[in-house]
Amino acid sequence: MKEVQLLGATGSIGTQTVDIIEEFPHDFRLTAVSARDSVSKIVEIGKRHDLDTIVMAAKHRSTIEKALPETTFISLEEGGLETVARDGRDAVLVNALVGSAGLTPTLAAVESGKDVLLANKESLVVGGELIKKAMKKTEARIIPIDSEHSALAEILAGNRIEDVEKLVITASGGSLRHLGKDELAAVTPKDALKHPNWQMGAKITIDSATMMNKVFEVIEAHHLFDIPYERIEAILHKESVVHALVHFKDGNVHAHMGAADMHIPILTALQGEERKPYRSLFDLARMGTLHFDPIDHERYPLFDLGLAVAKRGGLHTVTLNAANEAAVGLFLAEKISFNEIETLIKKALDHFQNDNHLTLKKILAHDQKVRKFIEDIVKQKVKTK
Ligand SMILES: NC(=O)c1ccc[n+]([C@@H]2O[C@H](COP(=O)([O-])OP(=O)(O)OC[C@H]3O[C@@H](n4cnc5c(N)ncnc54)[C@H](OP(=O)(O)O)[C@@H]3O)[C@@H](O)[C@H]2O)c1
Known about the structure:
Distance between the termini: 60 Å
Number of strands: 12
CATH superfamily of the largest domain: RNA polymerase sigma factor, region 2, helix turn helix motif
CATH topology of the largest domain: Rna Polymerase Sigma Factor, Chain: A
Helix content: 40-55%
Strand order of the largest sheet: 4-3-2-1-5-6-7
Radius of gyration: 20 Å
Order of helices and strands: EHEHEHEHEHEHEHEHHHEEEHHEHHHH
Bound molecules: NADP nicotinamide-adenine-dinucleotide phosphate
Number of helices: 16
């Protein structure tokens, strides 16, 4: 029986992870969950599972303790995510948090030698170097849940990384792909949240529409598979059937395909060596034509901008991520337009200097500073209107 600790249990990936755990009750036991504010969802999960620990915002303590008196409550404010990540030596940690909030627990888990099943790509974007260093010391592994990286891991299993010419990940183009650049100014969060292929959380759906998600995935692939940026490519593929390809040096190209269903990469990460039966609805013959195109660099300017930052590395990737998180939050709150996401990220990158000596403390402090910088610009703009 594998013990599973699940951070971000109430989100899109978290909920689908609970589905998989419930589908295989003899193989997995859920021991800890976290959320920020989704009290009723956590109580529902807590009633169905014999949980040891729940982590949530401190203001929910009394409600949770009343509903689930057998379970230990630790607040986010008292470091609950990190406590869970360091606890339970034999468990695996599924990190399904959104944003840079995922870094501290990812790092804590690998530092204590625990394998992390990682959906939270932002951990690697902002702290990739620190996480890699910790992994070397403890031999903890990061097993990807992101569909493209799960696909790459499937292809690469049993192959030598030295034999790889390049990695290719696919991008759907996001919810606004049918619109030209000049039509983007007027889009609302409601328009942008309708993804054609995937049901995902709000932030990643917007990141897919701007193509920032693909930048983050290139950074994730770079860290996970130790491949230089020059040998990682992204291409447009609107059907989201092929998730990734690996070009080997001898001319062989292996593609991975599957249904656009995150339950599959979640199960792949959880199951380990032995494959478990799962209802896949994949039927290639019914899919008809598949399309592949190069990224349209003019339509998705954040892709080149983000990749240039990634290649420089250092604190600028933290600036990129924090500015993006803050700007996407403001767009979702209808405080800025869709196009202002790009403008604000550029302003932050121009304002803050790079620094290649990163520590966790520096990353977390800088993350806050950049968010405040973006929020202040928008507050100022509202005042002067
Ligand atoms: N969704 C997908 O299909 C998909 C696919 C590939 C990769 N990913 C990656 O997986 C991660 C999770 O994405 P998602 O779409 O599942 O996100 P989501 O639906 O927004 O869920 C986020 C989860 O994190 C919790 N949370 C949010 N902010 C927090 C904070 N500051 N501190 C502690 N907990 C916090 C939320 O709790 P509350 O419910 O209480 O707010 C929720 O449980 C992201 O990194 C995303 O890029 C997602």
